[in-house]
Amino acid sequence: MSEQAVKRVIIIGAGQAGGEAALRLRQAGFGGDVTLVGEEPAPPYQRPPLSKKYLSGELSMDRLLLRPAGVYAEENVAFLAPLRAVWIDRANRRVRLEGGRELGYDALVLATGARARKLTLVGADLAGAHLLRTAADVDAIRPRFVAGARLVVIGAGYIGLEVAAVARQTGLDVTVLEAAPRPLARVTSPEVAGFFLDEHTSKGVRFALGAQPAIIKGKEHVTGVGLADGSEIPADLVIAGIGVAPETTLAQHCGLKVENGIVTDAQCLTSDPSIFAIGDCAARPMAHYRNRVARLESVHNAVEGAKIVAAALTGQSHAVEAPWFWSDQYDLKLQIAGLFQGYTQVVLRGTLKERSFAAFYYNGERLIAVDAVNRPGEYLGAKMLIQNGRTLAPEVLADASRPMKELVAQAQ
Ligand code: FAD
After folding, report:
1. How far is the CA of 14 from the centre of ligand 1 (A)?
2. Rounded distance, CA 44 to CA 142, Å?
3. How far does the centroid of ligand 1 lie from the alpha carbon of residue 15, in Å?
4. Host H or E run for residue 66
């Protein structure tokens, strides 16, 4: 697609990726029509605080917005919401919206994100049983998210553990159920997972690991969660954080290549050269990982996709960054750079006991990722090494007597 031929861009999905893409197109000098279609009522907002400071009540909705609501009009972006796109006619390059209106495009950006996986248990529709993906989900949770309430969190991934942390800080009684034998099984090593398990346990969170919830009990309102072994955990509130599924319905209906997400090339182009896909809904080759195709669920990945599309549509280049992510639990700031999957060795710098350490992941001799807890210097240093394709021997990084900055300089 030649960028000169693109006069009309439609972006479907007004989340982190879609909102960024609209504004970055303008920043990059795109002068054509930009239409942003979002099914949620609010302008694009950040989801990370939903399981952190929005849940605790410290942040209000207007503080979640990516940019002030008026920016889209100022930037001449037609923001259509709440409105769902329901059909893509690839042959005629048209998008149909709920209600029947159709819009033509020269380039289409799918930024449809992901949906929280639903519990398939009897009782999952009772009052007091919730998912957590949108601001509306948290608004529904908050009236019962009060000191003394009994909360069962299903799923010990980052979102589940962040909810558990905020809940304990708010004075709720918290039990976390996890089907795997340890928390954070999909996202980090046993060493780091064990650290977070101990932290939560010391704050009074109870864990049932290897637990299979079988039913959510209650008449109209949740009263407990029954497990497959016959035991029951009393509950006033149940929050499930059991992962997400990429929202690929439109892409599948119009015949784009979809595997785990909408498959794209490094430019975020799908199997149709007029259609891009970015953010949680898309899977693209990771430049820093030998072009392994991965679907990431992170703010950085959403922003990166927006930058790639804005550059592609304005004939500019964009140097992709290695992935990064974070999680906040209690006073612990976990910062992650790189992708740890496929690691063969993990090396610690600092100690878990100090609550300030970095776990470096190696594949063979290559540094591929870091999990840094309250160690911003180690995070930044490792991120720079991964970004630049550099490495340091495990024993060098493990030697905490030498400042990280000095070690990183040595590797450049
Ligand atoms: P989304 O933000 O999901 O936006 C997609 C939007 O598209 C949605 O509004 C959806 O309603 C809309 N849409 C879908 N289909 C249609 C359609 N047909 N028509 C119109 N609109 C449509 N990441 C981090 O890096 N750090 C964190 O600490 C972190 N914490 C998180 C905590 C929570 C509770 C959640 C839910 C996510 C967290 N994430 C975190 C992940 C991060 O928020 C996501 O990766 C990011 O929001 C992805 O952006 P996106 O635009 O691809 O998708």
Report:
1. 9
2. 21
3. 6
4. none
Ligand 1 atom with the smallest distance to the CA of 116 is: 36
Write the pLDDT tens digit of every residue in 353-365: 999 999 999 999 9
- 288-312 pLDDT, tens digit per residue, is 999 999 999 999 999 999 999 999 9
What Rg, from alpha-carbon coordinates, does the chain have?
A: 22
Give me the percent of the chain exceeding a pLDDT of 90: 98
Q: Atom 12 of ligand 1 has which residue's CA nearest to it?
A: 13
CA of 114, closest atom in ligand 1 = 3
Q: What's the CA gap between 40 and 13, in Å, rounded?
A: 9
Q: Which amino acid is at 306?
A: A
Supply the pTM of this predicted model: 0.97
Looking at residue 412, what is its pLDDT? 64
**Ligand 1 interacting residues, C-beta cut-off 6 A:** 12-18, 37-40, 47-48, 50-51, 84-85, 111-114, 132-133, 159, 247, 250, 279-281, 297-300, 302, 325-327
Local structure of 355: helix, strand or coil = coil
Q: Which protein residue's CA is at the shortest distance from atom 36 of ligand 1?
A: 133
d(CA 96, CA 87): 5
Tell me the pairing of strands 85-89 and 275-277: unpaired
Q: What is the pLDDT of residues 67-80, one digit of tens each?
A: 999 999 999 999 99
Across all residues in the chain, what is the average pLDDT? 96
